[in-house]
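pasting for the record
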Amino acid sequence: MRRWILAALLSTTCLCTPSQAKAGPIAPFLQGIWVGLTTGVGAAAGIGGAFATGMSAGAWLVGGTFLSRIVVSVGLSLLSQALMPKPKMPPPPEIMTNYAQDVAFVEWAYGRVRKGGPMALSAYSAVPVVNPGGSDAKGKRHYGVLIACHSTRGPVVHYLDKREVELDAGGFVTTDPIRWPEGSHPGVWHGQVRPYTGQPGQAADPVWQAAFPEVGASDNFAGLSYAGLYAARCATELFSQIYSNGREWAYAPVWDGCDTVYDPRTDSTDWTDNAALIIADIATRIYGKQVDWAEVAAEADICDQPVTNRDGGTQKRWTINTVIRADMTWEQARAHLQMCCDAWFYERSDGKLGFKVGDYQEPDLILTAADFVSLTVKHKATDPDAVGSYALRYVEPARDWNEEVSGAVIVNPDPTAPRAEEECFGIDSHNQAWRVIRRWAATAQPEWSITGTLKYIGRQVMGRRFVRIQHAELGLDCRCEVGLLARNGGSHTWQIQAVSVEPEDFTPDALALEPPRTLRASVAEDGTVPAPASLSGQVVEGTGGVALIDWTWPAQTEDLRQQLRVRSPDAGLPDWQIVDIPGGQGNLLSSGLIDGAEYEAQLRNRTNAGRLSVWVPEAPVVVQAVANTDPPPAVEDFAATVAGSTVVVGWTAPNSPRYVAARIYRAAGAGAVFGDASVVRLEFGAASLADSWTDPGPGVGAHRYWIEPINGSGIGGPVSGPQTITLI
């Protein structure tokens, strides 16, 4: 490293010392909460304090003038060289959470963001709700999520937990399994989302009004963007599929934020993701700054310029999609906005806030050795501990608006060199993230770093992002970006920190230079739980008059448990009864059955995590319960005789306690066989006794008869016959 010190550096402190200030927009926000709750929703309704107070705000800091009393301009190099604190914004998973607390910081949403928010209500009710299937009286957990403290354009994509869902016109979730497939299970509809965007005339949520008498028409959350939801109870076997986290879903939609951002080019307000317009809105609306709207218009035009990305497509040059919280100081918000679009901030001569988005302008001011009281120049040199590559964490819409890492900007090809990862979650495109981190790398390791004390000419540097610095003795002649300019109190001198830049730093060729996105292999995951191959059921014999069915299936892997469901309309059990089976079993014995009733059964596998296979077989196995499986012996003395136009069938019952009755079969024709016959009589009688039955009118012609003894469960013994007769 080479260093030249041309004069003693005048000692001065260039710290950003923010002073406290009160945020103007907070008061109307709080008023909107309290005016919206004039009915006094109370704990008796089961409504928690989060609904009663909504979001509030604590003390927060903003700069007294711009950054402090003396600092008048600041650039990206101050952050990249760790001369100012880097912005620390909540990562996407934290932004997407729903949390219940009585006091929460106000949040402003700009551009397109995926976010959750504090709970506005959480209460249970069984009041019926009319859904597309009719009136639904299932118990429901009603809750609300506050998205922003202002009006917005509204939701773009809805997420319940990590699942992207579709809604119908009434807000009812139509995505399986939350909307269980029609006909496969009662209670098809389980969720509803009702978004509100804080527009004038916003009415109170009608579902909450119907469910909770304490919620009145004035409880309308005027001016706030939020969503009302409910999660309905479901059948036990569906719970793990519908509610994968074991409770109501976390709501974190993709939402188009503030729709009242002023655009001086059209003298109108609307939604936008234009970086310059958003910076101006945040500075004026939240932090009470003043801006020059003509300058804002010029910067907005730069932001809308199309740039080419690695894929050959075009996109806007600079956008911002972010969330600002009321606990952020102006310095924190400014540093975050600065990283989003390579912005440069300064204090204008008229006292207003000035800023420039990332764009190069050829310097029109030259500083020479005569303009400096003192000057320190550092030339870039090889440092074994220097960072070798830089990458930026940003928000990637293709990953459900989750965090992603940009391709690396390599400044030292040595693979052992350290890697630095910065973060900026107000960026949602790889190309913009790459352009920002490329500039970050250039300012972190510039060709020349210059620090010095300027004479009164420092006043001319105000408002200039770029200057040219020449020093004949050192042979120095370079374009520089002003990283920091500050007035030294009590004197007419100025402190300056600058780094050398090249025009191409601001217009890199993405087709040639933009690195590929982080490779994330897409692996086809089969989360299907394997179903048992088969299920069978057999009546258990020799039970002494007790009806039992043994259900059996092939052995399953040890990580699976089984569930058997059984029903029997014959036995008065029309609904499925589900039985959880301990691990390692290959059968289940059903007892307490009704003799002669038919029982249907299906089987499925279940993982330890509660995931389920399909029921098998598709058509249930049907088995008739039998209490007595031992048939009686054959009857004796079986005969059939003609008596006029009738036939008398006679027999002697077997000497067996298993005998209960006899089935008598008849078929027409002298050559008929047993397979042609049908039952014409079930005659009950006692064992060992002679019995008979008269067939009243079989008709003219030949007829054949058979007889079968049965036990109490209808199990038949040996068939006797045939006996043939002819009626004339």
